[in-house]
Amino acid sequence: MNPYLDKLHSYPFEKLRLLFEQVKPNPEYKAISLGMGEPKHPTPKFIQQALVDNLDGLAVYPTTIGTPELRGAIANWLERRYNLPKVNPATQVLPVNGSREALFALAQAVIDKDAKSVVVSPNPFYQIYEGAAYLAGAEPYFVNSDPARNFGCDYDSIPPEVWQRVALLFVCSPGNPTGAVLSLTEWENLFALSERYNFIIAADECYSEIYHGEQPPLGAMEAAHQLGLATVDHPYARLIVFSSLSKRSNVPGMRSGFVAGDADVLKKFLLYRTYHGGAMSATVQAASVAAWNDETHVEQNRAQYRAKFNAITPLLKEVLDVELPDAGFYLWADVSRTGLSDTEFAQRLYAEYNVTVLPGSYLAREAHGVNPGANRIRMALVAETAEGLEAARRIVQFCKTLHP
Which SS3 state, helix, strand or coil, does residue 288 take? Predict the structure, then answer.
């Protein structure tokens, strides 16, 4: 067996299952889960219809590079969304089976196993980043998010001897679980480091379309363009962006996303994926074209999240240290004032009020002497507003039993 498999940690939800294994939730309450970040808003009817109308696509083998129609729709969306100059759909865009699969696969394609490479990851983080690093034969290096920096990471704290070994840097903006969005200044610093030390930036932007202010989150390709780094001779050098329809269009089961950016990297990544078997069904591709070409359903989806967060966040602020995030559908709450750790809070809330939240320490690793997820919980506000409000009321009631 691959010895790197022994380095993998249990997934957060397996840890949660073990935490709840001996707990019987209060039967007086209907179960409500805020634990998993799975979109629960209905899938738009026109996307469902597009799947039905293209079922003949099931009778053909899809190509890894995808159809010209899908690559064109994605390129056009990138240009509209981020005010970019012409994105070449033939060389700068590649459809993928969801951003999760592609985030993992990119590490396998770009890391030299014999180079003792380092993969930089934010902490807390999406666990795929860590697993991708280990299984590519690299060592993850965690940079803790700092509440004083709007949960940004201090990349300047990384020693030069570490930077010299870095092959890949994962960035999640908007962040999971913090919801933080990188600023133009932060992107400028990362691009300068990438140029100096010659590593690839993997920008995970799958939460980009769920935001709570009027200004859309800044994207990595957009930042490169604004900084004058998207040069004609080598556009988006060492930058690969990942996005997905799962959250934007409420279709997590379609497993439809894309990667875009550096054409030289994507050429090699396409070669890898041809062998890896990462082709998207033609039926799903046709439905994806319909989804990327429509913004009305995205605006309606975003409005639902905004209304939900605006109703729920003030309730929870009564008892927890929590703020409205820049973007995303998570609340990242500090439970320290309850006197309970994050795991104790989650376990007792489940036992007494049948509400599931995810302990923040499960989403992070101890690095530089601390676990930045400790004493925090992640709440995924993915269900309808009424269910989210009921969960919030129970959390408030639970906290008040701890400190009347």
Answer: helix
- Select from 222, 221, 202, 218 the least CA-distant residue to 102: 202
Question: 3-42+297-402: which CATH topology?
Answer: Aspartate Aminotransferase, domain 1 (3.90.1150)
**DSSP-based three-state secondary structure for 21:** coil
> What is the structure's pLDDT at 318?
95
Rounded distance between C-alpha atoms, residue 268 and residue 264, angstroms? 7
Please give the Cα distance from 351 to 338 (Å, whole number). Answer: 16
Residues 224, 230 contacting (CB under 8 angstroms): yes
pLDDT under 50: residue ranges of the chain: none
Cα angle 392-398-399, degrees, rounded to a multiple of 5? 90
pLDDT of residue 125: 97
Q: Where in the chain is the domain with CATH 3.40.640.10?
A: 46-294
CB 193 within 8 A of CB 229: no
181 near 218, Cβ under 8 Å?
A: yes
The contacts of residue 344 (CB under 8 Å, 6+ apart) are: none
pLDDT at position 233 is: 76
User: Are 39 and 207 spatial neighbours (Cβ–Cβ below 8 Å)?
Assistant: no
**Stated pTM of the model:** 0.96
Pairwise CA distance, residues 258 & 237, whole Å:
18
Alpha helices in 173-323 (DSSP H): 184-197, 220-226, 245-249, 263-276, 282-292, 296-317
| pLDDT score, position 403 | 80
- The ranges of the chain annotated as CATH 3.90.1150.10 are 3-42+297-402
Q: Cα dihedral sign for 238, 76, 67, 253?
A: positive
CATH of 46-294, one of 3.40.640.10, 3.30.505.50, 3.30.450.20, 3.40.30.10: 3.40.640.10
Count of CB atoms situated within 10 Å of the CB of 264: 13
- What pLDDT sits at residue 334? 98
Q: How far apart are CA 220 and CA 207, in angstroms?
A: 13
Task: Please check whether residue 204 is in contact with residue 99, taking contact to mean a CB–CB distance below 8 angstroms.
Answer: yes
Residue 213: how many CA atoms within 13 Å on its side-chain side? Answer: 12
| Length of the chain counted residue by residue | 404
Position 301, amino acid? N
